[in-house]
Design goal:
By secondary structure, the chain is an alpha/beta fold. It folds into 2 domains: 95 residues; 171 residues, Vaccinia Virus protein VP39 (Rossmann fold, 3-Layer(aba) Sandwich), CATH 3.40.50. Helix content is 44%, strand content 14%. Helix 1 packs across helix 3, helix 4 crosses helix 8 and helix 6 packs across helix 7. InterPro entries: Nicotian_synth, SAM-dependent_MTases_sf. This is Nicotianamine synthase.
Length: 307
């Protein structure tokens, strides 16, 4: 299952007192001469894909799968030198694209959760999930980021916004021996995720909780206090303000040795997921910021509660 994958990282280390470090004497990379044309073409194609998806019900199938596949590839690997110009040109469509991506991801996860849980050979069916390799690479990246700032493989992990196909927690439990608690506001999504984990023989726990509430439920706060890792899914919190509110409550509940991992996005990937940076999360001490340049879509912030 893609154990031999290699990936490159673009890593920015951020502390409260650090300044950006640049190499003196090295010019900035030149944008290609046709960057302007590439930006126009890319922006037009992104809008066209948005309109194509809006003409569907977003449920998995040949047309929807192909359209989302092209959208993800274009956001992850745009032509060089045109990201800023593309974002300016599609600014009016960002909410549409993110809404479509969120809805489509939920439908895709539910579809595959049902397929896996109902299959005669659930493990073999899980192997057929087209984005399995991306999840494996993302967890590998996140564990490396945690190790880079002194956190080990978590013994106890809480995954917030686990959804109906909770692959992150399943990978942590199955491959790294973590005790995992899946948390989602949707009981149906939790039930689907539990059915998948049970079908493939991976033991996890689940808890229904709405993180947008004014305070964390007492049982969830206790789980967070005892966890080594709390992971905030990319779709938990619609924008930076919502994520700030959630992470402030997490920081208040976290123990002194708890790592807080926040998934975000950068570049054109922000058309798929909300963007959040260290400055948007004043309740956290952000230790590391990781931006992949591979097929992995999410960026990662590794943080802890201020000491």
């Amino acid at each position: 299952m893609h154990n031999d994958c290699h990936w490159l990282l673009s890593i920015n280390v951020t502390t409260q007192r650090s300044q950006a470090i640049t190499a003196i004497g090295f010019p900035a990379p030149r944008a290609p001469r046709d960057a302007g044309g590439a930006a126009i073409t890319t922006a037009e194609r992104l809008v066209a894909l948005c309109e194509e998806l809006e003409r569907t019900d977003l449920r998995p199938g040949p047309v929807v799968d192909a359209t989302f596949g092209e959208l993800v590839r274009l956001c992850c690997h745009p032509p060089a030198g045109c990201t800023g110009a593309v974002l300016e040109r599609v600014a009016a469509h960002v909410d549409r694209l993110r809404g479509l991506s969120s809805a489509g991801e939920g439908l895709m996860e539910q579809y595959w959760a049902d397929r896996i849980a109902g299959a005669a050979d659930p493990a073999a069916e899980l192997e057929r999930f087209p984005y399995l390799g991306n999840y494996l690479d993302l967890v590998r990246l996140e564990l490396a980021a945690l190790a880079a700032v002194g956190f080990g493989v978590p013994r106890r992990a809480v995954v917030l916004g686990s959804g109906p196909l909770p692959l992150t927690g399943m990978v942590l439990a199955d491959r790294h021996g973590s005790e995992v608690l899946h948390v989602d506001r949707d009981p149906a999504a939790l039930a689907a995720g539990t059915a998948v984990a049970d079908a493939v023989g991976i033991g996890t726990r689940s808890l229904a909780a709405d993180l947008s509430a004014a305070a964390l439920p007492a049982d969830l706060a206790d789980e967070i206090r005892r966890a080594d890792l709390v992971l905030l899914g990319a779709l938990v919190g619609a924008d930076a303000a919502a994520k700030d509110a959630v992470t402030a409550r997490l920081a208040a509940a976290a123990g002194p040795g708890t790592a807080l991992l926040v998934r975000t996005a950068a570049g054109l990937r922000t058309l798929l997921y909300p963007e959040v940076g260290p400055a948007d999360l004043p309740a956290l001490d952000v230790l590391l910021e990781v931006h992949p340049r591979t097929d992995v879509v999410n960026s990662v912030l590794v943080a802890r509660a201020p000491r």
